[in-house]
Amino acid sequence: RISSIFVPTVLLLSISTFIGWYLSGAELSKSIATAIAVLIIACPCALGLATPIALMVAAGKGARLGFIIRSPRAIEKTKDLTDVVFDKTGTITAGSLKLLNMELVETPLDSKDGSTTFSTNNLLSFALAIEKQDSHPIAKAIATAIEGLGVQLSQVSEFEHRPGQGVAARVNGKHAVLIGSPVSIARASAAFHPRIQTAVNKATNNGNSVAILAVDGLAYGVFEIGDVVRPEAATAINLMKKRNIKSWLVTGDNQKAAVHVAKQLPIEIESVKSEVSPQGKWEFVKELQRENKKVLMIGDGINDAASLAQADLSMAIGTGTATANAAADISLVNPSLLTAISALDLMAKTNRIIRSNLGWAFIYNLICIPLAATGTLPAMYAGIAMSLSSIFVSINSLRVKI
Length: 402
What we know:
Elements: H1 2-23, H2 28-41, H3 45-65, E1 68-69, H4 74-77, E2 83-86, H5 88-92, E3 93-104, H6 120-131, H7 137-147, E4 156-162, E5 166-171, E6 175-180, H8 182-187, H9 194-205, E7 209-215, E8 218-229, H10 233-242, E9 246-250, H11 255-263, E10 272-273, H12 278-290, E11 295-299, H13 305-310, E12 313-317, H14 322-327, E13 330-332, H15 337-373, H16 379-397
């Protein structure tokens, strides 16, 4: 925009200079030389270099910090942000299921001969043996956690996967072992032990998934599986607050799961939106913008793509979908929310340096163009001044690296 006005203005000034000198009785060569001096001194090298060099340096610095600038406009968009909208799964949370808690009851039913008693090690061995046969993410999370305890595998036969219910098998040739949802296990076992029921209720209130371990018709254990909040999430949100940027948690998950995550973070419950569709996320971003808010959107999935494209500035977690990354202004190759803070800092610094470059270019031209037009600054010295101006802008742009 600046160059589109600056260049024709300088051309007009150069022509006016020629006409003015020639009409005043100066020689033709002197009039031409003075007009050329105006063109040389105003050659928009400083203006032309002010933005692209700073952008180039910022792109290199960003890559080292773990993010890619996909849109140069991102540098201007970092100004005056008022709100940040976070997706939950894969953004605020790590996006991978883990075993968060387990409760094992060795003797859920009193018996004189101890036939219903299994040691903790045996119960873990049963669970590992059966979950190793399943490819479900919940099964993988349980198996990975138990393997880390050094538990040995039991023998499995007659394995059966029941969609929506769980898995069943015969372990060590005699024990019927089931692992599944509380509803499906309740149908095939005796009433749950109070400790097991308490663990189920707690996991459900946390909004996490629950798997029950049953052996020979009795429930012996509860596994609570869920996504974990990124360790740096709270720090990142606090840094947003210091910038006077309000944080929102917008997710398609249920209210309990969303609130449970928000309680682990400095996000007010009133700023949590649950069970929101992809269309709803897009509409929420537009609603904030209608209130004259400048919105930063951070997400990772296909369902975030529309809201990422709508936001004033958008960032996609690099480990997310290609659709989300394509729609975002910045891709966080390092999937840490602190990388988003680094990106904001670098964009703000780059913006300041670009503006200082443009400011210098204007001051230089305001001083030197009149000198050239009045014949005080010959063409040769005008060329030296123009070169020095370009060198100054280039060196100033390198400050982005610091």
